[in-house]
């Protein structure tokens, strides 16, 4: 038969050449499966999009990919100055401290710097027979604007113009109710006077009600009225730090 001769396997040498030819062809991937491998520089550019090409080339000089990655990571960590680290570790309450002030001076500086006494007043009609806290939750919005309180009791509006008295009256009763009253049947604070702590209640926490309580206290202070009293010193210290 002529088939073996056509295949070139008449002797051992031809057979060996054919096997080598088949082996070399079988090791080549299909053209559709071929892809250009990513260079180390390309991989680093993808891993560190903020780095310049020059920095990446410098990191690769005389180093493999793993060593270049370590070099670039160390450069990023060194980029954070000691001041940045100190600011990150600094307590939030201390971040804005510039110089030591007497507590009253610091409070007055804060009030005058944050309050907007010349902004349009927020008109608030407060019914004495209803919860001051619930009414405050619904009505006041801008803490820095002055308020104009008009009381409503016994089915009629109380006569008078708010020249400061009604505002102080409102915040006095509001702060008292925060300590002794409740919201939807849940007391906001528990314990004895001077040692009050916020009630640990899921509904109070999840509804962010204590954030609103903090705003009420701040609102009272910004309007030169008394804040809340009776809170445990440990709670105050925790908030300040």
Automatic annotation (TrEMBL):
- PROSITE patterns linked: CUE, HECT
Gene Ontology molecular function: ubiquitin binding; ubiquitin-protein transferase activity
Superkingdom per UniProt: Eukaryota
Q: Which residues form the CUE domain?
A: 36-77
Keyword list, A-Z: Ubl conjugation pathway
- HECT domain residues are 139-241
Its recorded name reads Uncharacterized protein
Q: Which organism is it from?
A: Desmophyllum pertusum
């Amino acid at each position: 038969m002529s088939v073996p001769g056509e295949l070139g396997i008449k002797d051992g040498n031809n057979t060996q050449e054919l096997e080598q030819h088949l082996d070399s062809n079988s090791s080549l991937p299909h053209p559709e499966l071929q892809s250009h491998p990513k260079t180390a520089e390309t991989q680093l550019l993808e891993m560190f999009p903020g780095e310049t090409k020059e920095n990446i080339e410098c990191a690769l000089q005389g180093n493999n990919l793993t060593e270049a990655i370590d070099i670039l990571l160390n450069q990023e960590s060194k980029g954070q100055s000691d001041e940045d680290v100190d600011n990150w570790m600094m307590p939030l309450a201390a971040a804005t401290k510039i110089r030591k002030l007497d507590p009253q001076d610091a409070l007055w500086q804060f009030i005058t710097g944050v309050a907007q006494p010349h902004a349009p007043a927020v008109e608030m009609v407060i019914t004495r027979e209803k919860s001051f806290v619930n009414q405050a939750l619904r009505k006041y919005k801008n803490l820095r604007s002055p308020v104009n309180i008009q009381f409503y009791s016994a089915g009629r509006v109380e006569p008078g113009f708010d020249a400061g008295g009604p505002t102080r009256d409102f915040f006095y009763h509001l702060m008292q109710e925060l300590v002794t009253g409740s919201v939807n049947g849940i007391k906001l604070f528990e314990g004895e006077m001077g040692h009050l702590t916020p009630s640990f209640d899921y509904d109070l926490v999840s509804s962010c009600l204590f954030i609103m309580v903090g705003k009420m206290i701040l609102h009272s202070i910004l309007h030169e009225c008394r804040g809340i009293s009776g809170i445990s010193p440990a709670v105050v210290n925790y908030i300040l730090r």
